[in-house]
Amino acid sequence: MTITIEEVVQKIDDWRNKQVEIQEMTGGLTNKNFSVSVEGQPFFVRIPGASTDLLAIDRDNEYHSSKAAAAAGIGPQVLYHLPDHKVMVLEFIDGETMSIETLGAPGMPTRIAQSLKKLHAGAKCLNEFNMFRLVEFYLDIVEKHQVRIPDDYRDRMSILSRIEASVQKKSLASVPCNNDLLAENYIDDGQMLWLIDYEYSGNNDPCFELGNTCQEQQYNEDQYAEICAAYFGETQRSLLARMYLYSIMSDFGWTLWGSIQNKISQLDFDFWEYAVGRWERALGMLDSNEFPKWLEDAGRED
Question: Are 227 and 214 in contact (CB under 8 A)?
C-alpha cells in the first residue's frame, strides 16, 4: 500500500513538532507530488505511483541520478530519502515551471543545451538507457497484461531495426541523461533552466536527449538546428539526423508508456489520448519525405 503524505511527514525527525502545511501539486503523470512547508520553508515531496515497475522505473537508479544531478549543479538537492517507500524529499526550486509555449521563446533552445551540457558532464547513472530495448520491454508488458495499443503499432515495428542500424553506424560516447525532458521537467529561476525528475535517467547517446526534448517541445527545424549548434558547437547533418531519428524513437516508446499507464494508473489523466498523440506524431515523421534522408545521414561523416 502506498504511503500517505501524512505518514511521510511523521517519518522525518526534523519535521516533528513543527508547523507543517501540505499542498498537493498537479501535473505529475506517474507519481503524487506535494509542496510541504515546514515552519515556512518549502520542500518538494515525491511519492511513487502504483505499479511503476511495469514502466521500467528503477527507484535506486533514480535516487542515484537525482543526487548526481544535484552535484552537477543542475538538479535540486535530495534532502531526505525514505528508501523503504522510495520517497524523496527534494529542495524546492523557486522558479517558473516551463511549458511548450515558454520553451518556444527565442533563445530557449540554446539555454536548454547549456543545461544539458551540465547534466551530461556529471557522474554516470547506475543504469543504461536504450529506447530500442525499452520498447521491447514495454511490448512484453503489453502482451502479459493485455494492454490496448494503437491498432497499427505492430505494423510499423519493422522500421525500428533500420533506425537502430542507422544510429549505430556512428556511435557517440554515452553520457548521463534524463531521457524524459518534457516541458514541465524544466524550471526557470531566471538565470538557469533546472532539470527535474530522473525516473528514466540512464547513460545514453546525447542525441537521444536532444531529440527527445525537441520532440516534446514541438520544435521546428530552426530550433532543432539551434540546440544542436549550442550543444555540439556546430550543426552537422549527421547529428541533426540522429536527433530526428531519436525523436521518432522517443514517441515509439512513450506511446507504449501511455498505453500501459492507461491500464494501470490511478491518476486522473487521459493517458490514451496521450498515447495516441505520441503515435500520430511518430507516424507523421516516419511518413515524411525527410525520413529516408535521416536514415542515410545519421551514420555519415560530415
Answer: yes
Taking the model in full, what pTM does it have? 0.93
Using DSSP's 3-state secondary structure scheme, residue 176 falls into strand
8 Å CB contact between 192 and 294: no
CB-based contact 262:272 (threshold 8 Å):
yes
Q: What is the gyration radius of the CA atoms in the chain, in angstroms?
A: 19
For residue 32, give the 3-state DSSP assignment.
Answer: strand
Q: Report all structural domains of the chain as residue ranges with CATH numbers, in order of start.
A: 5-94 (3.30.200.20), 97-297 (3.90.1200.10)
Query: How far apart are the C-alpha atoms of 35 and 23, rounded to whole Å?
Result: 5
Confidence (pLDDT) at 3: 86
Residue with cell 518534457: 182
**DSSP 3-state of 78:** strand
Instruction: Quick: pLDDT tens for 174-186.
Output: 999 999 999 999 9
Least confident range of 24-28, 91-95, 105-109: 24-28
As given in the structure block, the three cell numbers for residue 10 are 511523521
Which grid cell is 245?
531519428
The answer to whether 188 and 219 have CB atoms below 8 angstroms apart is: no
Q: Is 104 helix (H, G, I), strand (E, B) or coil?
A: helix
Determine the Cα angle at 218 with ends 212 and 223, to 5°: 85
Q: Over range 271-299, report the average pLDDT.
A: 96
Query: Is 71 within 8 Å of 56 (Cβ atoms)?
Result: no
The residues facing 20 across adjacent strands are 38
Give the residue from 220, 292, 195, 207 showing the smallest Cα distance to 250.
207
